[in-house]
Structure formats: C-alpha cells, structure tokens
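re: ur question from yesterday

yeah so i grabbed the chain u mentioned. its 243 aa long if i counted rite. heres the sequnce exactly as i have it in my notes:
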Amino acid sequence: MFSEAQYQAVIDELNSGMAQLSGHLGRINPTIQAATNHWYIPDWVADALVACGNKLMEAGRWIVEKIGELLEGAAAPVLFFWKAYDWHSGVGGPASQVAGNTSAGALRATFDWSGDAATAYTRAVSTQPTAAAEIQAISTTMATSLGICAAAGLAFYVALGIILVKVIAATIAAIAAFGSVVFSPAGVAIIIEEAAVSGAMIWAAIGSLTALLAAQANQIVAMKGAASAGDAFPRGAWPVGTV
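ran it thru and got these structure tokens back, copy pasting raw so excuse formatting
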C-alpha cells in the first residue's frame, strides 16, 4: 500500500542521511591527522590509518553519489500512484457505468418498443457493453500495475534508507577507531568491508526494482493487445452504435 506522506518522509530522511554521511566523511582526514601527529605513532600505523581512511571515504562518497543519482527518480512513485488513481476513477469508473447503462436489461426503451426498428436498435447497442467492460478491465490492470510500481518505489527507497543508516553507523565507528589511542587495523578493515557490502546491497536493491518494473512494463504493454481485441473492438475501433 502506497502512502504519499510516508513516501515523502522516507525521501526527506534519505536527503538528511546523505548530508550526515557527507559531514562524517569530512571528519575522517582531520581525525587521522590529529591521531597520527605524535612522535610516538609509528609510521606503519600512520600509513595504515591513512590507507583505511582513504578506502572508507572512497566507499562512502560512492554511496552518497549513487543514492543522489537514484533520488533523481524520486518523483516517479508519486506519479505512478496518481496515474493509478486516474485510471481507476477517470477511466474504470465511467467505463463501468457505460457497460451497465448499455446492457440489455438496462435498455428501458425496448420494454415498450417492438418491431424492426427496436430490433435494429438492440442489435446496434449490444456491442457497447462488451467494449466498455474491456476498457474497465484494462483500467483495472493499468491501475494495479502502476500501484505496484509506486509501492515498489517506496520499498526501494526504504531499503536505501536502511543501507544509509548502516553506513553512517559504520563511518562513526571508524572515526572513533581512527581517533582512539588503541588502533586496530583489523577492526577498521571490518568496518570498511561493511561499507563495501552496503554498496553491494544498493546494487542488489537496484536489480530487484529493475526486475519488478520490467515485469510490470510487460504487463502494461500487453494492454495494447487487449485494447485492439477484435471481439470488443471490431477493426481496432470502438463498435459503431448505429446501423
């Protein structure tokens, strides 16, 4: 279920998180310089700190850049949601009314009208409910597919938010490790590896979203065939209601 308010909150949190992560990444070099600017710090420790810091900044900046790129499409899920609503209320609803109003049981004139003209009238109108029902079915499929796309977009950005929180926590922990008197290269390496894993998780989220959107795109494309079905739309057009 898509909620525009929830979605906007997620996007706001992502933008805020990116700003936080960028700020923490900016603290890495000063922290390393302060920690290594002592006579008792061996060169190998200083070199290890600098190397680890560079790796962490590289991974963090890639994540900030990639999420920034992905946020360029943040308007799409909201658009999908409202387009789904339009298909449901602006197309499906009216088509349902047409189908009902032109059904055989709804044609009140035929109750008191008989003869060749009445027969011709009934025959001419008989194709209208089928066409209208097909339009309603198409609108339902389109609304459902677009709704799924909107919900998938929300889930995707929520996943990015979770990944971003993990990276921020890892960066804060690394900065603390860089600035501590007791430095563990292995410990910082684990933190950097976690940041790299987070990058892989972003690619996995992109892959999952792409697969889902591709499936929905195929479903939407299939609606073109339904819109030209010969039984509902003779010669690919709305059935003529006259004889």
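noticed a couple things. The longest helix spans residues 128-179. also Residues 3 and 9 are 10 Å apart (CA to CA).
anyway ttyl
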